[in-house]
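Handout, tutorial session.
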Amino acid sequence: EVQKHSVHTLVFRSLKRTHDMFVADNAKPIPLDEESHKVKMAVKLRTEYGSVLHMPTLKENLREKGSPNTGDPYGHKQYSGNQGQELEYLITGTHPYPPGPGVALTADTKVQRMPSESAAQSLAVALPPSQSRLDANRTAAGVGDVYRHAGISERSQPPGMSVAMVEAGGNKNSALMAKKAPTMPKPQWHPPWKLYRVISGHLGWVRCIAVEPGNQWFVTGSADRTIKIWDLASGKLKLSLTGHISTVRGVIVSARSPYLFSCGEDKQVKCWDLEYNKVIRHYHGHLSAVYGLDLHPTIDVLVTCSRDSTARIWDVRTKASVHTLSGHTNAVATVKCQAAEPQIITGSHDTTIRLWDLVAGKTRVTLTNHKKSVRAVVLHPRHYTFASGSPDNIKQWKFPDGNFIQNLSGHNAIINTLAVNSDGVLVSGADNGTMHLWDWRTGYNFQRVHAAVQPGSLDSESGIFACVFDQSESRLLTAEADKTIKVYKEDDTATEETHPVSWKPEIIKRKRF
């Protein structure tokens, strides 16, 4: 029996077959039509080289062609001359001059000749290449000047005159070379990621997640006001920390000291000593909920961002507020630190991204390309680039000035979190529970995941608030609205044959806004 498929499935299969049939021909240049190419070249010659069309062709070009009377492929006549003699040409329209000093200028004595070609050639050979090229350009310009001074239009030569392509330094002019059709970059193949563990234990939305530098355990913060520490290998709960009086919105583990930092909607920023599992420092100053935090990789500085539209820089040891970074006009949703300039990057609900000067405490650059709130920013671990996530687009940027690279379009949801690993896998997690995986270099979306919610939860509780790669970059952890932590790993059985990259050129396009 023939299995019946829906029209949608049949159309999709047909589309895929057609795509596979023609994908090999993508970006191939169309065959050259001789007639139209000649017309095109003739027009190009007249428009771009009209000022030098009257000039003679070089001697070696005439020898190459065999006979000096051979026709040009584009329908112009070559300048003819006797092969045995020195070729000397008259420039029409110049002022005549006498052959030497003290000689009266008469019809018999007047001279109107160019310097001999052999003399010019020997001089060009003696000069270094760059100098001869400059001189050739200067001479070509000078001919136009001669014509202008003589009162003759540069382009008013009679139709039968010679064609000469000015070849500076003997190189063919690139303007007449056939251009190669632009090719689309093929994305790097990445194995698909699959869900292999769901960890439950929190009694509220899991809002933030961080992996410790030793890769032994990870920490989560939740709307149940607790911070929980879990074993990374087994997924077992190791420890619960209580102290916040509202949702915990950010956690990070220090690589420089045995400290854990947390922040929450209770305006508090806490430093926990993991040897005693107690709070040892508070950082007071924010006037509203603190939405995120990050540690500087090389100095003992903590940066937090808040709903009070500011980010604050704290000295970890003294608890002093070093700078208050003000400039955003709405809640600052995310903050990131790096050792290179600019050392601090913030994304805000006012739709802007700001790159900050840490020393001065002032904005270096403001990026206004996004049209909606920027809730997530991620720095590439190897390249000097970063990405920002907003409901309108994910955008990639270059440091240090925030030059726009490309848009990653297609994740049409409120993007809460971004993560990237050294292999160039970018993960975007959204409020509706969808997770998209992208190839960083080309912006190709190679996988889309929408994991089922925990049994007993509503479908509306599908949402990803945070995601992070572990230190080995072989595991991806997501913090979700169904009160669970989901762990993903690469599918070891997948190959490029079983999961081919079926990219389409139109997907990979760089928009400039």
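The second record follows below. Compare its token runs with those of the first.
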Amino acid sequence: LTLTKKKSLRNHPIKISFPSSTQTLISASTTPFDSIEMSQKEKAMEAIKDAFRALRKRHILEEGAHGPAISALSKPMISQGSEWKEKTEKLELELQQCYKAQSRLSEQLVIEVAESRSSKASLQDKELLINDLEKDLCQTREECTRLQEEVVEKTKTLDLLISENKEVRSHLEEMTNRAQKAESENKMLIDRWMLQKMQDAERLNEANALYEEMLAKLKANGLENLARQQVDGIVRRNEDGTDHFVESTVPSTCSHRIHAHEGGCGSIVFEYNSRTLFTGGQDRAVKMWDTNSGSLIKSLHGSLGNILDLAITHDNKSLIAASSSNNLFVWDVNSGRVRHTLTGHTDKVCAVDVSKFSSRHVVSAAYDRTIKLWDLQKGYCTNTVLFTSNCNAICLSIDGLTVFSGHMDGNLRLWDIQTGKLLSEVAGHSSAVTSVSLSRNGNMILTSGRDNVHNVFDTRTLEVCGTLRASGNRLASNWSRSCISPDDEYVAAGSADGTVHVWSISKGSIVSTLREQTSPILCCSWSGIGKPLASADKNGYVCTWT
């Protein structure tokens, strides 16, 4: 109990406070008594006594106040042990909860610290980015300022150019008016000059026509006389520049099979009195072949469309091709260069022929329903004939004055090429005429039609002197070309099944059937020296037959 009271007294120390008057008296008592009067000493002693009495009262009061505590402490320690144990367990539970709460708060604090660090790093990066953007903004502002200055300068320059442009336009309008006036005057002068030249050309053409007519008549008379002369199967002409050929043989063997063109070969022609063959195809090329060896001699290029027909002058110097590009192309055979491009047709040119005695005049037919006569020396058209039905084939007479034309309506028509008048018309076929070929002596003309019939006409009377047909012979296209042998004894024509049939004109029957090609035959041509016979098909292959 004494220990408990001491602890209680330690926990509750006694504080003694003196009144202010007493403190004054005590402080005054420290001063020397020599300087203080006796009355003051008595007052001081009384004050001291009063202070002791107050202190005792306070001590009594404090003892009364601490009485319950002292009685409580005096109870047995065993009775409070259970209560303290319960309180201790509660406090331990609370302490554990506090530790758990503290661990959660620590984890959250760690997370928040990490987030704070990342936010701080991101903030630093953004501050750096802001600094960079501010620098870029400053540069952009400077650039904008510079561009604004340039815009101002360019605007001033543009205003200056606009003003200069207006002046130039006004000057250009003035010069254009002058040029138009000069052009109209020039055109008038050119028209007058062309009219004069046309008049001169007409006079010259009349003179040339008269000269050629006289020469053709003389040569025609000579041919008629020479055609009657036949010794040992050899026919000759004794005049200068004439041709000579032997009797034609019936072909039976394929000597060469040549892949001449890609996409099909639509036209072939031999040189006069030669075994050299020209071929034209859908690859827009014309090729020159040696039929003795089957080798390529040269290629002629320059056509802008498919080659639909070929013709060669009698001196073998110029080759003319009819093209699907609405033009005719004239090559120099020796140099291989294009001499002329004849323009004037408005649709594809499907047929062409050359005068038998003159290397100057060419006749052509196109799907614009016109036949045109061309002068190769001048390089332009000299006459045009109009008709109603499309023409597929064409050829010139021996004298070069009459044109034979085969049409889609199945008719054979004769035209005076100089006047353009229709001389005669014969209904030779029930379907389109695909080929027109003149015999060497000029007395017969062969026509082939889509009705798969081949008619031989007498050119003097236009009467049919022979009709040739075969059960397996079917023409493959509207431009399937047949031909007559140089001795005027045989006719050769191709079929859609790839065969070539050879007829005897005098007998009217087939004397040979040639089988080597597998695709439709488009054209046949016989060499002027009697052999070989050539045929071309739709796959671009050319076969020579002997």
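Points raised in discussion: The first strand starts at residue 234 and ends at 235.
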